[in-house]
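[Automated response] Your request has been received and processed.

Submitted sequence:
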Amino acid sequence: MGQVSAQKRIWGWIAFDWATQPFYTLLLTFIFGPYFAAIATQALIDGGLTEQVADARAQSMWSLGQTVSGLFIAFSAPLLGAVADSAGKKMPWVIAFSVMYVGGAWALWSLTPDGGGLWFALIAFGIAFVGAEFALIFTNAILPSLGDDAEVGHLSGKGASIGYWGGVLSLIIMLMLFAENDTGKTLIGMDPLFGFDANAREGTRFVGPFVAIWYLIFMIPFFLWVRETPKPRVEGDKIRDALDQLKKTLRNILERRSLAAYLLSSMFYRDALNALYGFGGVYATLVLDWSIIMIGVFGIVGAITAAISAYVGGLFDRRLGPKPVIITTILILIAVCVVIVGMSREMLFGVPLTAGSSLPDIIFYVCGAAIGGAGGALYAASRSMMVRHANPDRPTEAFGLFALSGKATAFLAPALIGIVSYLTNSPRIGVSPIILLFLIGLFLLRWVEPEGDRKTWFASPQPS
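Generated structure:
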């Protein structure tokens, strides 16, 4: 096969964001997550619990799945990244984790309305989640090779923006053609496509296979155009070499104040953001009694603002650097969380609302737009900031550590939400720990250098 142009290589890399975003938009947040919560709640009510307690227990189940998956990712990512850098190849790892992604997503079809396959679906979701996150690590590690620091910020925002547009399109397709509402019709009033049985929720359950098929189709440009720079073959025990290098890197982190502060900061604020994504649709189901269709429209609003803000954030990143973008978006997300915790169907910050008031719905749609907008820009700026701290010779290891910082406490937000939901029997109050995590992340950013420390650190001799 002939040489692939630099521009094609960039578009191939961007194709990954387009291919994978439906996992986060459709499965984690707006379709499967709320569907799982609704099915789990009904199963628990059928088992004898009251509706309020069942809501809290269902939220705890969903948090358990993400906690276990997050812990596995956290403690495997740095080693896998180090091994990949030592071996010199990333593409075989992307292929292997793509298989996990597709298989796990496809298996979500098994969750039936009677609660059959509830735990199996939770495990399948975890497998798909692990596949998606590990594939992301190895793909992010390619980013530093696509341009200089200023251009990387723009490319990160551009890729994230295009990915979110993929999320918007996939969500619109699901809502218009497949996901059924309480009347058994889709958003445009038609029966689910392909003769899917609305009573068996087959249109909604198709979200898993749909995400898998989407990935298989749109990853084709990635595998055709993304090429790795050949590295000399290194003889020896790659795992032992990777472990030695990883130990050295971990020791050096303690001497790199900016990197250490950034990893700690992102550990908390990305955990909070992921929890906000993972529990936004669940909150709408359990607190506001929204249907899948309403949640889907909410998702479209959020995904559109994410697509726009990720691109705009990339432009600000290129001009000002990623740190101001990160700080601004965290402040917006804190404000959103305060509103969410202070609102229910019956009241707003303790002020009673009239029965049947639409104000909570309107406010939560605005919150969805803010979450999408701030979250999209925050995601793009965060990986841009990591590039500014990464060893140019070991990018996969760097993004493995970045994944560790994003997942080492991935159990924390879901676990805190689960515990608080359980203790208060309130899914609304249960999301309050997210505010604390954002505040910790914001505080730690004060020690992060605006342009990172890569140029100064790797331009001078480092400790052995």
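Summary generated for your ticket: Residues 345 and 356 are 8 Å apart (CA to CA). The two ends are 42 Å apart (CA to CA).
If you did not submit this request, please reply to this message.
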